[in-house]
Structures are given as C-alpha cells and as structure tokens.
Amino acid sequence: MELLRSNMSRVQIPEPTHRIYKHECCLSFDTPRSEGGLFVDMNSFLAFGKEYVAWNYEKTRNPVYLHIKESPKSVPEDRPLKKPTLLAIGVDGGFDNNEPEYEESYSIVILPDFVSLPFPSVELPEKVRIAVDTVLSAVGAEKREQVAAWTAEEKKVSEHALALQQLKSGVLIPPSGWKCAKCDKTENLWLNLTDGMILCGRKNWDGTGGNNHAVEHYKETAYPLAVKLGTITANLEAADVYSYPEDDSVLDPHLAQHLAHFGIDFSSMQKTEMTTAERELDQNTNFDWNRIQESGKELVPVFGPGYTGLVNLGNSCYLAATMQILFSTHSFISRYFSHQSLKLAFEMAPADPTLDINMQLTKLGHGLLSGKYSIPVAEKNVATGDVRQEGIPPRMFKSVVAAGHAEFSSMRQQDALDFFLHLLDKVERGNNMRPDLDPTRSFKFGVEEKILCSSGKVSYNKRDDCILSLNIPLQEATNKDELEAFNNQKSDQGSEENNMSTDEIVRPRVPLEACLAMFSSPEQIRDYYSTALKGKTTAIKTTSLTSFPDYLVLHMRKFVMEAGWVPKKLDVYIDVPDVIDISHMRSKGLQPGEELLPDDVREEAMESAQPVANEEIVAQLVSMGFSQLHCQKAAINTSNTGVEDAMTWLLSHMDDPDIDAPISHQTSDVDQSSVDTLISFGFAEEVARKALKASGGDIEKATDWIFNNPNASISDMDVSSSNSAQTPAQSELPDGGGRYKLFGIVSHMGTSTHCGHYVAHIMKEGRWVIFNDSKVGISTNPPKDMGYLYFFQRLDN
C-alpha cells in the first residue's frame, strides 16, 4: 500500500473529455478475456495486454494500472438461439451470437514488479477508488468510436400523410386475392392511397421484384403514398408505407382512415409480406448468395499465420475483404510485419498510439499474420456445429483510417474500391517522411494519354494511378448463341429469371482480354479545343501505360444505366485467366515525325472551364425525379462524362451534408496548400492555380480539369524524347515485365456497391482460401468470373 501511495501523483481521475480504453489493447488484440487480462494505465487511460504493458512503463514511467480480467460463466448447453427482430447488433431484439457470459475481476497493479492489490478495497486511497470507479462506469473509447450496435433509422411521419387527398372512386379492396393492375404479379404489391390502384413494386437489378408499375404510376399522377399489401395488420405502425416524393419508408398517422376509404378493415388482416426493413434484415441474416460465399459446400476451416479472420463490425465487410488482400502482398507484409515490430512501432508512435495510422496498421498486420489469434475456439458453433475462430475486430484501425471521412466513419456499407483508394492515400501520407518504406508504391503505375488533333498534331498527358477501371463490352461475349437461345426460350415461355434456378440462367461471358483491349482502344473526344486550329474540333485519345506496377488492380465497372435511365448491375461473367500479359499496353511515347500541339493555354479557355453542368445530362436526370441542383452537381462532379457516371455519383452522394448547398463558383485566390498538393502530383504551379480557380478550389475537380484540358499541362510534360521521358514522380515508380498472375479477388453481391456483402478469395500456399469476415476456409470453387476487384502480382522474368 505504501508503494501505491508513493506513486499517487501518477494517478489521474478521468475527466469527461478523457478517452478511456478498457476493452482492447492499443498494440494488440488482447482483451480482458485474454489469458493475461488487460491493464489500464491510470494516467493516460490507454489499455495494454500482459505482454505489452511493460513497454508502456518503459516509455512513460506510469506505474499504476487497473487490471481487468474476464472469465466465462457456466451456461446451460441447451440455451436456445434467439431470432433477431431488429436490424441491430448487441441490443435487445438484435442479433444474438450466443456468446458465453463473463464475470469480471479487478485489481490494482504497480509496475515494474507487478505488485497486485485487491479491488474493491476500503484500504485503497480515496483518489484511487474514485479513479477506478470512474473508469469502470465510463463508456469505453472503443465502443464510443466504433459502436458495436447499429440500428436502422426510425421512420418519420410523412408530410404528405397529413393532408392526403383521396379520390372518391368507389374502389373497394378485398382482403386477399390481389393482382397488379398492369401485369400478372401477385406479390410485392402496393396500394396507392390516393386512387386505390394496386400495382407491383420496383424491379431489382437481378430481375426479381416487380415491374416498376407502382413507381411509374406515381410519375404519371404524382400521387405520393402507397402501402404494401400483405404488411397491413392490427399493428398499423408495422405496415410498410412508402413516400415517393420523400423516397423513403414513412409513418402515416392517418393510415386507418386512409385504409377505411377503400373498405379495408385492418384489424382482421394477416401479415403475408415482408416489409422493406424486414427484407433487409433477412438478407443480413441469410446472405443467400451461394456462389460467391460457396454456401452449401462443407467449408474446411484453416488456422495459423495468415489465416486470421476479421470480425464484422456492422457493414464492415468491404474493409475486411480489402485488408485481407493487402496483407497478402509483400509490400504490406514487409512494412507492417516482417520488418516492423510492435515495440518499434509503439516507440515511434505519438503519446496516443490509437491515433497513429502506422501503429494501427502494424497492430493489424501482426494480428492477421502472426497466427496468435487464428486458433479454433474451445467450443463449436452452437448453431452450425462448425469449428470456428473468433477473428479479430479492427475497431481501432477503422477509427483511425476513417477519421474525418463522413462515409467510412459511419456504420453504412461502402464501396470496396473507394475504401482501397482512400486507404492508399492515408498510408502514403503516413509514410511521407520515409517514402522508401511506402508500400503503396507497389500499386502505382504511370498512365499516358495521347491526343491526336485533326490538325495531325499530338499532345501527351501523364498521370499516376493505382487501379485500371475497365468497362465491360457485352458485345464481345463469347456465348452469344446460348444467350440468344436463352432469351428466345424465356420470351416463348413467358418466364422470368427470378422463377428460374441459378443453373438455368444463361449470362454473358466476356473475356478479360476484351475489357483490357477496350481500355486501350482509341476514343473520340468531341469539342476538343485545339491550340493548333485555335478552335474546337474532334480528337482521338489513346491510353497506355508508362510503367507496370508490382501489383496490378483491375476494377470491373459492373454498374450501368439500362433503358429508362434506371441504374443496373450487369449480370455478367468475366473469364479471367490465371496469368495475363499486358505488355502490349506499354506506351511508345513521342514517335519520330510527330509534332506536338503548341503550348497556348488561353485564359478564355480556362474561364470557360468553370464548373458548368451539361444541360442534356441534367434534363435526363431531372426527368427521373431528382432535383435540379442535385443533378447539376452530379454532372459537374463527373466532368459531364455522361448520364451513367452522373447517376452513379448522385446515388452515392445523396446523403452528403452539403448536397443541398449552392454550387460554388469561387474566383478568389486559391489556397496555397491545395496548390502544393497538386504540385506534389507532378503538375506545374501555374497549371495547378488555373485548375483550382476553374474548379472553385476543389482538388479533385481541379485534377479532373487538368486531365480534361491536357493542353494546360503540356509545359509540365517532358515529351521531347521518343522514349517518352517520365516526370520525376513517374521515374520513381516500380516497373518490370507485363506478365501477371492472379492472386486475389474481391467479390460483391447486392444491388449496389453500397449495400450487400463483400468476400475475398486469396491464393495462399498454392491453394485458394476464402475470407468471409471471421470465417476462413479452403475454397473449393473460387468465383474467378464474378469478381469486382482483381489483384494480380507481376511475374519476374
């Protein structure tokens, strides 16, 4: 006790502003349930596992710790599984993992000799008792920042329900036997509460659902509210009411009155259909996506170094799939595992290691690759009987990598491609003091765009990239005869794909080589301003690569616009070989006899590049029901490339906090830090300033402006050599031969990249392994033809 009193100056009583860690070690994935328990520094309130607490004492000389140990209670073996009724994790009515219950024990430990004192005890100094009680009663920073429970947003009362005008049409709705008024659909039917029309719901990307008759009726009549038949019961709050103008499920406080208008006695009706939220819950609990997840096959679990699963934190599968593949590359393994110890990373980290990207990447790397946490749990999964591993929860990593990003810091599903690009940017910034250690360089390559003007003169524009985003040319499908026969059979029989088994459906098969060829094929640029002709003309753009990366990432653009400007996911197979050769895609540079376009960037041309939306694109989007302002922003932010790209941007940015803010046409002096950022990309300062001025100071838009105005950057590009001289940034890029071997696939199932589920398949030790969140097992049939992102490693000659 005297030893404790002599160190009282090192004990703090937590303030409300303190971040208190008590659920997970800052340097590892040890928890109070680990063999050594967890030690909370009573000065900094950081937590450490038994192996690491001494490192913290050496670094800080903080000697007093609260030791927390959790031990499992005995639980009856026949404890039933509870079916979730709420789309939530870790709350009443939410998902129940049937985990054992634990009891906690506490003690005060004084380093360096690990002297232990019992807690609670009246003999402890009052300051210590108050400090410990405050720590135990506080919400841990881990749970405050990465909430384990996520719940669907509560429905709001519709503004259209309060003054809904119902037509006196005399329509009476029977209690059953409904059918769409415009087709033969008998499921997914919606009753319009204005005129009593019964129509089918929206068609899903995979052909299931309805035929869009309900939403088309709204567009024709502007009648705002519909209720889903089959969801009406005595509990009217559970009925699924949809507001088309508000584009959301809503509450109708006058629903009983609105139903009575059509003779509906809700008190006697039975529930026969799932609500929208229940269908989402059903997808989250079942994941009935057999092919990608290899469901129905006996999954042989794998354990050991490199085979550690990642716990799903709630819609974090995009993160798990991406990180599993990145930590299968030599560059990330070397940087954050084999050549970086946890102790060294901790010594180099700031006072709070939870906020350091390099520390948390090292923690994640050691967690995934050491094998320490890839061990079978003591008991089998009660529900399935499978031997499983618990996996590690990447909470601190997600918190630091998502800091300041509105989407990645949320609990919503995200696009794995967006996360991959965001992560590479974070990692590059985290290694800016030691670029030689930067693992993201292994993904970078140079891109060269050659523009041939109708004058016969050329310009070259170069940039760095880390993905090849490929369009899918369906016209190059290799099974056209089978497709035609399938479509004819479907038409003759009047059948729909959602009534067929997966084996019966014929989908287009497009070779990857055709997608790569499309990337390199010449492309027309209309209204191109030629400095040689001093006017606009049509030019030809050809894209090639100036270097080949160590790791090549291919992104398949599966989301397109179908007839009626409805976003659709291409139901297509991509035939991807194990080895590809992209040598033919290498740039040849400036050729003998080619003459460069003159460097004459007109000020009026720069001014005309102010962000102005293409009126045709805006009109088409507005006709689909979107607001004028939102459509203008979508067109501007996609550089007016087309309705498809604008729609994709619009759907993924509807929840942006500034989506309703007026469009900025800033013309004042640009921010110097933004100029410096563009200069670091390899652009000249003059070009950077013009681009930022033309783009209202937005770096991303400025970059697009430079690429869309290649004449503006000619002065910064050294293309005088027939060998296509590289910029300083490009000269540091890795390079080698053009042969690559497939080693990783990120697959996606769902209606868009922002919902559904992501899974990774990785080639390890000569066999394919599936990483499905915390599940890790040998893959018997990897979905090579269904990937969203493909990862290739260059083969050394």
Notes on the protein architecture:
The protein has 797 residues and is of the alpha+beta class. The chain has 6 domains: 1-151, Herpes Virus-1 (2-Layer Sandwich), CATH 3.30.40.10; 189-280, Herpes Virus-1 (2-Layer Sandwich); 288-442 and 739-794, Cysteine proteinases (Cathepsin B, Chain A, Alpha-Beta Complex), CATH 3.90.70.10; 443-487 and 505-596, Cathepsin B, Chain A (Alpha-Beta Complex), CATH 3.90.70.10; 615-653, Ubiquitin-associated (UBA) domain (Helicase, Ruva Protein, domain 3, Orthogonal Bundle); 681-709, no CATH class. The protein has 24 helices and 28 strands. The strands form 6 sheets. Strands 12, 15, 19, 23, 24, 25, 26, 27 and 28 form a 9-stranded mixed β-sheet that branches. A 6-stranded mixed β-sheet has the order 6-11-10-9-7-8, with helices on one face. Strands 2-1-3-4-5 form a 5-stranded antiparallel β-sheet, with no helix packed on it. A hairpin with a 4-residue loop joins strand 4 and strand 5 (115-119). The longest helix has 15 residues, at 416-430. It is globular and about 85 Å long. Mean pLDDT is 82; it is low at 85-92, 146-153, 280-289, 602-609 and 713-731. Zn(2+) binds at residues 180, 183, 200, 213. Recognizes and hydrolyzes the peptide bond at the C-terminal Gly of ubiquitin. Involved in the processing of poly-ubiquitin precursors as well as that of ubiquitinated proteins. Its EC number is 3.4.19.12.
